[in-house]
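[audit] Reproducing an earlier prediction to check determinism. Same input, same settings, fresh worker. If the tokens differ from the archived copy the diff job will pick it up downstream; this log only records the rerun itself.
[audit] input (141 residues):
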Amino acid sequence: MPELAGIIEDKLQATCSPEQITERHRQEGQEFVCFITIYRWLFSGTKASVRSPLRHACYANLKATHGVQVYFAAPYSFWQRGSNENANGLLREFFPKGTDFAQVTDESLQHALDLINHRPRKCLDWRTAHESFSEELSHLA
């Protein structure tokens, strides 16, 4: 069990949630513990997990620099913002509210995106966004 604790600790450091860790291990046929057990361990004082918020990224030059279209949801139209709010929440774990993105290095941003895109997701049947995207691309070749 100490080895599993080390694996869980590494995945928590990589910003995976207890549920993501448990379900991915279950799906891969690996040893696992219930995600509730991991939460209890986190909140018992043995471990502390701090996730910080990020407000919004800078959109002003996206279209000019990268040719990226940026769309904003209509006010009071929560159904238009689901994945947007989720993505913002994931980024908030790395960059606190009020972060000046002019001061964020490309390497630091890339590191955060790599961790996010390699995190298993319930909506993707516990595959990572990277795995799902790669799978979709493989159908084009």
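[audit] rerun output stored. Observation attached for the diff report: The first strand starts at residue 120 and ends at 121.
[audit] end
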